[in-house]
Each structure stands twice: as structure tokens, then as C-alpha cells.
TrEMBL record, chain A:
GO terms for cellular component: plasma membrane. The keyword Transport applies. Residues 9-105 form the PTS EIIB type-2 domain. GO terms for biological process: phosphoenolpyruvate-dependent sugar phosphotransferase system. SUPFAM superfamilies: PTS system IIB component-like. This is PTS EIIB type-2 domain-containing protein. Coiled coil: none annotated. Keywords: Kinase, Phosphoprotein, Phosphotransferase system, Sugar transport, Transferase, Transport. NCBIfam families: FRU (TIGR00829), PRK10474.1 (NF007783). It comes from Agrilactobacillus composti DSM 18527 = JCM 14202. Pfam families: PTS_IIB.
From TrEMBL, chain B:
It comes from Agrilactobacillus composti DSM 18527 = JCM 14202. SUPFAM superfamilies: Phoshotransferase/anion transport protein. This is PTS IIA family nitrogen-regulatory protein PtsN. One of its GO terms (molecular function) is protein-N(PI)-phosphohistidine-sugar phosphotransferase activity. The lineage of its organism: Bacteria, Bacillati, Bacillota, Bacilli, Lactobacillales. NCBIfam families: fruA (TIGR00848).
Length: 110, 154
């Protein structure tokens, strides 16, 4: 088994009303990823509009893309060819530390 | 108008179930002159609740209504006398409610940034703990404004 190493993550979060879950999910993912030593960028698509838009470089460098599946994500074609994980914003809010750990373990197997 | 004021905070709300809690907080918002239509707002919040639960875990629920029944963007806060069921994502009971009221037409509103910053803060345990141990409504407001100021500076 290979060594589990920090990975590069990007994510996009959105939710039906776009006022709360979007931001909680983003914060939770960022906090968990940083705690695990990973590089992380999370774009929010809420009522305010798009914030922290992912750069082309960040997407290119990402080992995995995490998208919330509560509602559609805008400009999803940016992630063509990337490894994409779809989870609910609720799962990101509650389980980001576990999700990040599992992704790190999974990528170490490759 | 500020998004949270003392008159929409109840640090010892007595309630048995979530619909009653939503109604009581709706009444607080209405009394503070922040709604156009109390029933319309309550129905909107309860309808939102049926889409997916707003019990986000950590003992917190964030019911919200986005409707023209809301006049001013607001967050009513309640600490519950006894924790209640909220079909939470982590299965736990809820003892802290942040009930949002957002006008339908609030696109681009600066206040939405405050709500997003508050939502982000709720992810952090130390922030939740401080709200749980606050002695007065003013203390809660101070905590929130401090953290929001910090969040908006970054």
C-alpha cells in the first residue's frame, strides 16, 4: 500500500435557496481539507452569485473535483476528464473530514 | 436595518416540535416589523423544510424562507429550553436555531454576504460553543458582529 499524501482538491457548492448550505458546505470542505494538509479551492454558486471562481490552473492541478448534487452546477464542462465526486451539501457539512480522508486513501491506491 | 437585533433573539425558547419553533420565531420576526405577511412566511419556511431538512447537525437547525412575505433580511436566533427532533443529518437533536428570513428580491444584497459569513462560522465548533454559553442576547450579537467583521475583512 502506498503512502497517503496530501492531495489537491477543488469543489463547487450550491443549494436550492443559495443562502446557507452553499457556504456551510464550502467552509466545511475547506476546513477539513486544510486540516489534512491538502490544497483546496472551493467555488460557491449562491444567491450572491459565483464567488471564489476556480482558476483554470487550480482545476488543472486538482486530483479530484467535488461537486454538490442538490441542484445543478453551472459551467460543469470545465471538469471534463477530471475525477469528479458528487455529494450532497449536507454530507459535506457533516462529513467533510471523512470524505477528505477517504479520497486521500483512495488516491494513494492508484 | 441590522440583520440581527435583540428583539429577534430568544435564549430560552420553550417548544416541543419544529413547526411550533418555526412559528414562534416567525412571530418574533413579525413583531419586530420584519415581515409583510406572517402566515405566508411560516408556510414558506415549512415548505422549504419538506424539501430537505435544515437540521445540519451539531445541534443546529437553519430553517429559512425566501419569499416576498419578508420585508427585511433577518436572522432570528433561539436557544431551546429542551432539545427537539429536527430530522437532523447526524440524527441528533437540535438546541440552537438560526431562522433566516430573506426577501425574494434580495439579489446582490450586501446582507446576503452577512448570512453567508454567518453560515460559514457555524461550521466552527468554537463559534457554536460561544453562542451556546452566551449569557445575554447582546453577547450573542457581539459575537456575531465580531466574527462577521472578521469574515468580511478577508
Amino acid at each position: 500500500m502506498n503512502e497517503v499524501k496530501p492531495i489537491n482538491l477543488v469543489g463547487v457548492t450550491a443549494c436550492p435557496s443559495g443562502v446557507a448550505h452553499t457556504y456551510m458546505a464550502a467552509e466545511s470542505l475547506e476546513t477539513a481539507a486544510k486540516a489534512a494538509g491538502c490544497d483546496v479551492h472551493v467555488e460557491t454558486q449562491g444567491q450572491i452569485g459565483i464567488e471564489n471562481q476556480l482558476s483554470t490552473a487550480a482545476i488543472k492541478a486538482a486530483d479530484v473535483v467535488i461537486l454538490t448534487n442538490d441542484i445543478g452546477i453551472k459551467n460543469e464542462d470545465r471538469f471534463k476528464g477530471k475525477l469528479v465526486l458528487r455529494v450532497s451539501s449536507g454530507d459535506l457539512i457533516g462529513k467533510s473530514p471523512i470524505i477528505v480522508k477517504k479520497l486521500m486513501a483512495k488516491l494513494a491506491e492508484v | 436595518m441590522e440583520i440581527v437585533t435583540k428583539d429577534i433573539i430568544n435564549l430560552d425558547l420553550k417548544t416541543q416540535d419544529k413547526n411550533d419553533a418555526i412559528r414562534q420565531l416567525g412571530q418574533l420576526l413579525n413583531k419586530a416589523g420584519r415581515l409583510n405577511n406572517l402566515e405566508g412566511y411560516i408556510q414558506n419556511v415549512i415548505k422549504r423544510e419538506t424539501l430537505t431538512t435544515t437540521g445540519i447537525g451539531f445541534g443546529i437547525a437553519i430553517p429559512h424562507g425566501k419569499t416576498d412575505a419578508v420585508k427585511d433580511i433577518s436572522v432570528a436566533i433561539a436557544r431551546l429550553h429542551e432539545p427537539i427532533d429536527w430530522a437532523s443529518l447526524d440524527g441528533g437533536k437540535v438546541d440552537l436555531i438560526f431562522q433566516l428570513a430573506v426577501p425574494e428580491s434580495s439579489k446582490g444584497d450586501e446582507h446576503l454576504r452577512l448570512l453567508s459569513a454567518l453560515s460559514r462560522n457555524l461550521i466552527h465548533e468554537d463559534f457554536r460553543n460561544k453562542i451556546r454559553t452566551s449569557q445575554t442576547a447582546q453577547e450573542v450579537i457581539d459575537l456575531i458582529s465580531q466574527s462577521l467583521t472578521k469574515a468580511l475583512e478577508v
